[in-house]
Specification:
Largest sheet: 11 strands, mixed
Radius of gyration: 18 Å
Strand order of the largest sheet: 3-1-25-23-21-18-15-12-9-7-6
Order of helices and strands: EHEEHEEEEEEEEEEEEEEEEEEEEEE
Number of strands: 25
Distance between the termini: 23 Å
Length: 294
């Protein structure tokens, strides 16, 4: 593994094969299919163990009680930001143009530094960087963009409080990143966030990663809606503190785990919460892998 070596075995819950389908159909309205290419997973066995979890499932607790013991995931809903106030950002090769002083570009990197809603269109050979204040709320509306960064993440959230990526209706956006990352790379995914990250909107997003992970948040990662396809060399979607899925369509193909949450320093984090959605996972590792609860 590269980056921050995010696979821990202190205690984790994993689901592969048909068991992922069984979980989704029994626990919520989501339709989930997961498969594993690993021969060691061919038995389709699920294992879960914990030495001191605040949300240990001993077979007598209902799923709702188990999840209630977890920390509240940070999710940025559509009602929290007005799309009518969006600032237009036109991506133009290795640069961008915008009327906002909070948007700048240099050497293929487009940087956003302030709270706001930014509507991105066009194509960029480089990357989008969000470097806003620690209390900033930033929304990126992807309006049919094509972002290809051969040197790192296509979208890198370095700092902010909450960030949402909204997929504009009737559009398809594509992002791709570097072919490889060094072991000590600060960011190692096609879309990488140091902040809470939420996906929403009714458009489509295609994420292609050849170097490591598809989509990673070092905090909470949430998918509310949208049609998202991820192809990743390692993990598909990774929310370190938590991964929440409340809707949308997800099609994930990964060399490592498909959907994962792996915070191991806090027993109320490291969980996956699937409430709704149409999810297909083809993974070389686990289809779903959580440090604490699934």
């Amino acid at each position: 593994m590269t980056g921050d070596q995010h696979h821990s075995v202190r205690h984790r819950a994993a689901l592969t094969g048909v068991l992922a389908t069984a979980l989704a159909l029994a626990g919520c309205t989501a339709s989930t299919t997961a498969s594993s290419d690993s021969a060691s997973e061919s038995s389709a066995a699920a294992s879960s163990s914990s030495s001191s979890s605040a949300a240990t499932n001993d077979g007598t607790l209902a799923a709702a009680n188990v999840l209630a013991a977890n920390a509240n995931a940070s999710v940025l809903s559509d009602s929290e930001w007005p799309s009518s106030t969006a600032t237009e950002v036109a991506l133009e090769g290795t640069s961008a143009s915008s009327d906002s002083d909070a948007v700048s570009s240099a050497d293929g990197t487009v940087t956003i530094t302030a709270t706001g809603v930014y509507q991105l269109s066009g194509s960029l050979s480089g990357g989008i960087v969000v470097a806003a204040g620690d209390d900033a709320l930033v929304v990126l509306i992807l309006d049919g963009v094509n972002i290809d960064n051969s040197a790192g993440p296509a979208i890198w959230v370095q700092s902010a409080d909450d960030v949402a990526i909204s997929l504009a209706e009737g559009t398809t956006s594509t992002v791709s990143d570097a072919d490889a990352y060094s072991d000590d790379a600060d960011a190692n995914a096609a879309i990488y966030s140091e902040s809470d990250l939420t996906f929403t909107g009714t458009g489509s997003l295609q994420v292609s990663d050849a170097g490591n992970d598809g989509i990673t948040s070092k905090k909470d990662l949430a998918v509310l809606s949208g049609d998202i396809t991820v192809s990743a060399a390692d993990d598909g979607l990774r929310g370190k503190n938590s991964l929440t899925i409340r809707g949308g369509q997800l099609d994930v193909t990964s060399g490592g785990d498909g959907l994962t949450s792996d915070e191991d320093a806090d027993d109320t984090q490291g969980f996956i919460d699937i409430e709704d959605g149409d999810i297909t996972v083809t993974a070389g590792g686990d289809g779903l892998s959580a440090q604490t609860d699934l």
